[in-house]
Design goal:
The structure is a single chain. By secondary structure, the chain is an alpha+beta fold. Helix content is 41%, strand content 21%. The protein is built from 5 helices and 7 strands, in the order αβααββαβββαβ. Strand 2 and strand 3 form a beta hairpin. Helix 2 crosses helix 3 and helix 3 crosses helix 4. The protein is elongated.
Amino acid sequence: LELEVARALRFGHKLSLIIIDVDDFKEINDSHGHLQGDLVLETVAGAVQHVTRSIDEAARYGGDELALVLVETGREGATRVGERLSERMRETEAPMRDGGTMSITISIGVATLPDSAHDLESLVDAADHALLRAKRAGKNQLRTAPVAKPRPDGHRPRNPRRPRRRTTRPR
């Protein structure tokens, strides 16, 4: 994520982050055990693979959360990916260890660089806050981070890995 954020900032490209939370995951683990929780996460991961491109990156983010990094994807495109994922999960049943199946739902937070954030930290924070709004609104929902206010100096943040250019010639 750090590399993709630096690349997006350097070249002025869009980059979106989606954070996915499995609704009531603790209850699933407590009621059915951690092995069942693993099956639920595998089911969500399969749905993620189905709706994303090969250039997108997915990773487990915390216990019951997944993060998707969508390169070259703006706010509208990321929202569409999130909506397709939500729809896919509504149509998908997770297998149960005892042979049955169970319905699972997810909540989704979406944020986009530079629309919702100016750097790595604010991108993660914006997606996380959007996810929290989805959970508070009743779960099984998608929320998109609001468009961020421009920085007061009007400039985008400097990539910390890239040295500053000299303004004067060396002697």
